[in-house]
Specification:
Blueprint lengths: L6 E3 L5 E3 L7 E7 L8 H12 L4 E7 L11 H12 L19 H8 L11 E4 L5 E5 L8 H11 L3
C-alpha cells in the first residue's frame, strides 16, 4: 500500500489524507518533545521553510515509543512546538512507530518497503514525490547535515 492511500489525523484530530502531499518531496520524522534530539525541530523548520516553494514538506509524527519522551497531550505538543520552536510544518497525532499491535499504518507501510524502522526519536525518512522511501536518516543526523540536504535537493530536482 502506498503511503498516499492512507489517512492520518492532524495533531488537532482532523482527518488528513496523505494524498495531500502527493507530488511533494517529504521528510517524515518521528518527533518527541523531551528528547536530546528535540532541538532538531529548529533545523526541520528551516528545511521546511527553505524548500516549501520547491514542493517540499516536513511531516512530524509525535511518538512516545522511545524513552517515553512524548508524554504530552496534543494541545501540549502543539503549544511546545509552536512557542519553543515556531514549528509551522504539519504535525500529526501521536503514533506508535514500533512493530506490533497498535503500530501506525504509516510506519507499517514504511516497514513493508524493507526500510528500517526508527530506533529512537527523530528518525527521518525522505520520500519522493510518489511517496516512496528514498532514504532513511538516523536520529543523530541533523537536519542541516550536508548529506541530508543534498538528498533533498536531488529529490527536488533543478530549481
Amino acid at each position: 500500500m502506498s503511503l498516499y492511500q492512507l489517512e492520518v489525523r492532524s495533531l488537532e484530530g482532523q482527518p488528513v489524507p496523505l494524498s495531500t502531499f502527493q507530488g511533494r518531496v517529504t521528510l517524515l520524522v518521528n518527533v518527541a518533545s523531551a528528547c536530546g534530539f528535540t532541538p532538531q525541530y529548529e533545523g526541520l523548520e528551516r528545511l521546511h521553510q527553505m524548500y516549501a516553494s520547491r514542493g517540499f514538506s516536513v511531516l512530524g509524527f509525535p511518538s512516545n515509543d522511545f524513552g517515553k519522551q512524548e508524554p504530552g497531550t496534543p494541545e501540549q505538543i502543539r503549544d511546545f512546538c509552536t512557542t519553543k520552536f515556531h514549528v509551522t510544518f504539519p504535525m500529526f497525532e501521536k503514533v506508535q512507530t514500533k512493530a506490533g499491535a497498535g503500530q501506525s499504518p504509516v510506519y507499517a507501510a514504511i516497514a513493508k518497503s524493507a526500510v528500517e524502522l526508527p530506533k529512537w526519536n527523530f528518525g527521518k525518512y525522505l520520500l519522493d514525490r510518489n511517496g516512496n522511501v528514498i532514504r532513511f536518516f538516523a536520529s543523530d543526523v541533523k537536519p542541516e547535515d550536508p548529506e541530508l540536504v543534498r538528498a533533498i535537493e536531488q529529490a527536488l530536482g533543478p530549481s
